[in-house]
Amino acid sequence: MTAKALVDDITEDATAMEVSEPRHWAAGLPGITHAMGPAMADMGVGRALTLLTDMNQKDGFDCMSCAWADPEERKTFEFCENGAKAVTWEATPVTIPTSFWAENSISSLLDKSEYWLGMQGRLVEPLYKPKGKDNYEPISWDDAFTLIADRLKAMDSPNEATFYTSGRTANETAFAYQLLARAFGTNNLPDCSNMCHESTGLAMGQTIGIGKNTIAYKDFAKADLIIIMGQNPGTNHPRMLTALEEAKEAGAEIVAVNPLLEAGLVRYKNPQKVKGIIGHGTGIADQYLQIRAGGDGWLMKAISQRVFQAEDANPGTVLDHAFLDEHCSGLEEFREHVKDLDAEMVLRATGLTTAEIDELAERYLRADKVVITWAMGLTQHKDAVNIIKEVINLLLLRGNMGKPGAGASPIRGHSNVQGDRTMGIWEKMPPKFLDALQREFGFDPPREDGYDVVKAVEAMQTGKTKVWISMGGNLVSAVSDTHAAEKGFSTVGLNVQISTKLNRNHLTVGDEAIILPVLGRTEVDMQEAGEQMLSVEDSVCAIHATRGKVKPISDQLRSEMSVVVGIARALFGDSGPIDWAAFEKDYDVIRDHIEHVVPGFDDFNKRLHEDNGFILPHGPRDSRTFPTATGKAMITVNDLEYIECPPGRLLLQSMRAHDQFNTTIYSLNDRYRGIKKSRRVIFVHPDDVKELGIADGSLVDVHSEFSDGVDRSVHAFKVVAFPTSRGCAATYFPEGNPLVPLGFTAMGSNTPASKSVVVRLEPLPAAGDSDATNASGSLATAEH
Ligand SMILES: Nc1nc2c(c(=O)[nH]1)N[C@H]1C(S)=C(S)[C@@H](COP(=O)(O)OP(=O)(O)OC[C@H]3O[C@@H](n4cnc5c(=O)[nH]c(N)nc54)[C@H](O)[C@@H]3O)O[C@H]1N2
Ligand SMILES: Nc1nc2c(c(=O)[nH]1)N[C@H]1C(S)=C(S)[C@@H](COP(=O)(O)OP(=O)(O)OC[C@H]3O[C@@H](n4cnc5c(=O)[nH]c(N)nc54)[C@H](O)[C@@H]3O)O[C@H]1N2
Ligand SMILES: [Mo]
């Protein structure tokens, strides 16, 4: 089957946008019918039902749409609308025919949008772009592997190669892939996590000794209070709404902290319940704090200050003294520090009222067991690491860690981004891990840190990268400063993309490029020893099996493991210390190696085959042991930043629409926010729209303002008055990425700070004026 002609008409024109009232509830019946509709239409009822009923089941495959945890008791349909979209997008019967590559030059495809590219269907044959040519052409698997190995061997240093990973890769493949990079001699292993929860990993690593969730799934239902910060679960982790509904039914209070009023945080209509289908559903947030972007650290500190004040009023009854004495350091310094907290600054930085902050403090003090969850609304700020440390401080004061119903809960994004890290996908894995690799495989791994995402793009820009290999993902669109990234990729000698679907990173290439098409998570993976399964780790450290269920869309596809092994054998031959060929035949072999290298994986094969998985050990969660420098949980003193926004400017964040998965666009609509037919939107508070003298619905160019003197802008976005906090604005990613300089990153974690961007809006001439016709164009063309 080939792509429908329909997508040829898509111009992504802001003037085509239809705007209606945003929703005040999420999911429910429309969610399910929206979900089932496209799946059924595209792939037929049989295939669709097999996929949807096997999704997230114990003997099925793990949904690739997010890293949300699975409940112990699975329902018949354990999926959400957006999971169904992800599956449909991957398991589509539409494939890209060989003729497509002769008919479409690379430069002509660059004019198409990500949406259009993704809609062309699955990649089904290895492709090669030779030097001096503007088209991909078919190449055999063996020739592709030989060519990659030749280019790697021809380099002056292994550090001229970079091995990127997106977070869908399963544990076994990720382990083999990092082994390939390190056996070759480099730690250049950037990954999507560098743009995602890196700030979390750093802040939690430094304070409690581990960068992962301190709660288990069942803790949600045991909590008295759940604070959801900087996260939009209605769109990005929809199954979390079921856990929140259960928590509410068990008596928990829920507080949402978010500049935008997000439908899923207001009300949830559970499609699996009668009251969700015909009733009003469940109200989610008991208190909704529309905070100024970047202000969360100030809010946390202000609550901590009120905790100390309550303790002073009733000594010995508010702080958890037993926990603090035994397990924490830094209490007195912190107590002194927050005494002087500037109340005016708190109000300015949070945009909240004293009454709102007092109310949250009262809720916090009333609750014995508190969970705080967060995602990109905290991690992608200039001051993200400090902000997250303030979350940890607040939790520690009342012992909200390592007990049932309480803890710090960063919710991961990509479905195996957490597992990839556990497996060694990181540019700076600790010496302990490298020593274990050395013992297990008998080679000396490189010890100097490699590039993270930002450093990798900087290295490309200075011509330091000869070979780039991507295990999934679409870095050129995902990273900040789109045009700088495009320039970087154009200097790379050989760009190898291991992918399921066509995206812009296949088109931003230098001399040579190779596309290697792989099996997706839904497809059966058959190797010499029989049908293979893989494993993933979710947000709450649960390792479980994932098995493809449907026949691969083409018999030319290889598994990601086969591709890693293919490159490794072409590069190292079959006589070295590592038996690569064995990895491919039977994935149990690599699981045995993982067991020897990575702590917590004892009896890996047995526990995966027999029990379908297990929970990784976690000191703070299991026994209140904190593997930090001091052996204690560290309460920290952090000098918080305040992002100044000069008059006439707005503080811009970029986030996901309901019909997208990162750079993959399923449709141009964002149902909950009332947007249809175009993504070129900027949401602004109605009073700011007025104050700026711009008409609601008019078109503007958005310019960011940084001291490097470069004018970065995106063209022709529609202004939509929307319930966001004053002085803040929001647009979608990746459309907003050209506005963020590459070097504008979170302090410490180097994560692009794409949610703290100061912008100004420049109105375009009104419709009817000759210039306004310029307002159409895809991401590909409009910003050049
Ligand atoms: N359907 C779908 N699911 C996904 C993804 C997807 O693209 N589509 N992506 C996956 C990935 S990789 C990730 S990382 C997760 C992302 O999941 P989220 O973190 O929910 O993703 P964003 O859309 O970036 O939403 C960020 C939220 O933070 C809020 N926010 C922005 N700035 C601030 C701030 O300063 N303070 C506070 N308190 N809030 C703020 C925004 O208004 C928004 O509601 O989702 C995963 N799941
Ligand atoms: N401005 C702004 N920028 C952001 C963000 C933001 O909120 N705002 N969010 C950041 C975050 S949190 C993240 S995680 C990154 C995401 O960055 P990436 O992970 O690099 O990007 P994705 O869009 O998830 O990658 C999609 C591509 O992966 C490939 N793919 C899909 N499934 C598979 C598979 O099973 N195997 C293989 N080999 N390939 C597959 C397909 O070809 C698809 O086109 O973006 C970051 N960029
Ligand atoms: Mo992410």
From TrEMBL:
Domain Molybdopterin dinucleotide-binding, first and last residues per copy: 650-707
Cellular component terms per the entry's GO annotation: membrane
Keywords of the record: 4Fe-4S, Iron, Iron-sulfur, Metal-binding, Molybdenum, Oxidoreductase
Keyword Iron: yes
Requisite cofactors: Mo-bis(molybdopterin guanine dinucleotide); [4Fe-4S] cluster
Protein name (database record): FdhF/YdeP family oxidoreductase
InterPro entries listed in its UniProt record: Asp_de-COase-like_dom_sf (IPR009010), MopB_CT_YdeP (IPR037951), MoPterin_dinucl-bd_dom (IPR006657), Mopterin_OxRdtase (IPR006656), Mopterin_OxRdtse_a_bac (IPR010046), Prok_molybdopt-oxidoreductase (IPR050123), YdeP_MopB (IPR041953)
A Pfam family hit: Molydop_binding
Domain Molybdopterin oxidoreductase: 122-489
